[in-house]
Amino acid sequence: TGGSGPKKIQERVSDLQAQWAALEQLAAVRKKRLEEALAMHQFQADADDVDAWTLDALRIVSNEEYSENTRGVPGRSQEAAAVPARA
């Protein structure tokens, strides 16, 4: 039994090292998945921001008052071009 003690210890150490390596691999996979989820969440938040901005811009350009105020713009620019510049 003199040689079986160190052999058992070595087997146990090898087993623990293998378990540790497997745990590190699982942790790396988990980290990658979390990073991907974070990127997806950030993308979704950015897309929501763009969507909100687009809806706000659409409301502004669809506004009756805005469209009434801009109806005369082409004519006004022609009128302005006909006015001589001051020296």
What does this protein look like?
The chain is an all-alpha fold. It has three helices and no strands. It is rod-shaped. The protein starts with a helix and ends in a 5-residue tail after the last helix. The model has no long low-confidence stretch (mean pLDDT 83). Keywords: Actin-binding. GO terms for molecular function: actin binding. Pfam families: Spectrin (PF00435).
Summarize this, please?
One of its GO terms (molecular function) is actin binding. Helices cover 87% and strands 0% of the residues.
Describe the main β-sheet briefly.
none
Q: Indicate how many domains the architecture comprises.
A: 1
Order of helices and strands: HHH
User: Into which percentage range does the β-strand content fall?
Assistant: under 5%
Helix content: over 70%
Derived from helix and strand composition plus strand pairing, the structural class reads: mainly alpha
- Quick one: overall form? rod-shaped
Q: Counting H and I runs of at least 4 residues, what is the number of helices?
A: 3
Provide keyphrases for this structure:
mainly alpha; actin binding; 3 helices; Spectrin_repeat; 0% strand; 87 residues; actin-binding
List the helices and strands and how they pair.
Blueprint lengths: L3 H59 L1 H7 L2 H10 L5
